[in-house]
Amino acid sequence: MAYHQPYDPFYVYQPHSHPHLLPPQLPQFADEPGAINTLFVSGLPNDVKAREIHNLFRRRHGFESCQLKYTGRGDQVVAFATFTSHRFAMAAMNELNGVKFDPQTGSILHIELARSNSRRKERPGSGPYVVIDNRNKELSKFQDDPSDEGDSDPDEAQELGNSESPKENDNAKSEADSEPDSKAPSANGHSEKASEGGSGARACSTLFIANLGPNCTEDELQQLLYRYPGFNILKIRARGGMPVAFADFEEIEQATDAMNELQGNLLSSSDRGGMHIEYARSKMRKQ
C-alpha cells in the first residue's frame, strides 16, 4: 500500500519557484529614434519578380513589407524590404548579403541599410508587396518637348527676363520656381503648389537640386537617389551652362528625408561646394 504525505492545508503551489527553472526570456531592445529599419537590395536579375523578393524576406523575423522598383535605367531593378525594428533588419542583412540569388545568371545580392525608412501607405488591394515601374516614365521623359518653358509660372518669366547676372544662386532661384507643372495634382487629389519659391516654399514631394558641378551627370545623381525609398524620377536641365535637377518622390516625408540627409553633400563631380537642395515650387507633373 502506497504511503501519502499528510495533507497540509497551508501549502500553496508555486510553479517555477526555482529561478533556474524559469523559461528563458528573449531580450527586448527598443530602437533609437531615427533608427533605419529598411534595407536596400541591389544585384538583382532583370527578370526578378516581386513575389521572389517577398519570399526571400518573409520568413525573417520582423519582416513587414517589400517594394520592387524598376529604376528606368534600362531594365535595372532594385528592392526595399522594411522590418519592424532596426535589429531585425540588421539580422536579415547579415544573413542574406552576398548570397547568390540566381545560379543561372550568377546574380549576387548586395544588401545595405537604406538611406531612410520606407513610409509605405496601406492601400486597398495593395497586397504584401508593391511594384514601381519607372521604365515608361523614363521613356516619355525623352519624348517630351526639350523646352518646358510653357509650363513655367508667370513670375518665373519675369524673373528670368530681369536677370542679367549669371550668378548661380539667381539661376537656381528661378529654376526652383519653374520646372514642375503647377497644375499637376498630388497623390491626395489636391495641388502641392507652393506659395512661393526658394527656401520659403511649402513642403512638396519634388526637390530642386542646385550648385552642381559642370560635369555632374544624371547617372551620378540617380545612383545617389535610388537608395531613398519613394524616389520616382529625376530630371536634369542645363541652364546658363550649369546643370540643375528636379527629383520627384512619392510622399512629401520621403522627399524631406532625402533633402535633410543630402543637403550640402559633395558629389564626386562637385567643384564648388556641396549640393543646395530645397522644395520645388510645385510637384513634378505626371507623364
UniProtKB/TrEMBL annotation:
<dbReference type="GO" id="GO:0003723">
    <property type="term" value="F:RNA binding"/>
</dbReference>
<dbReference type="InterPro" id="IPR000504">
    <property type="entry name" value="RRM_dom"/>
</dbReference>
<dbReference type="Pfam" id="PF00076">
    <property type="entry name" value="RRM_1"/>
</dbReference>
<feature type="compositionally biased region" description="Basic and acidic residues">
    <location>
        <begin position="134"/>
        <end position="144"/>
    </location>
</feature>
<feature type="compositionally biased region" description="Acidic residues">
    <location>
        <begin position="145"/>
        <end position="158"/>
    </location>
</feature>
<feature type="region of interest" description="Disordered">
    <location>
        <begin position="113"/>
        <end position="200"/>
    </location>
</feature>
<protein>
    <submittedName>
        <fullName>RNA recognition motif domain</fullName>
    </submittedName>
</protein>
<feature type="domain" description="RRM">
    <location>
        <begin position="37"/>
        <end position="116"/>
    </location>
</feature>
<feature type="compositionally biased region" description="Basic and acidic residues">
    <location>
        <begin position="165"/>
        <end position="182"/>
    </location>
</feature>
<keyword id="KW-0694">RNA-binding</keyword>
<feature type="domain" description="RRM">
    <location>
        <begin position="205"/>
        <end position="282"/>
    </location>
</feature>
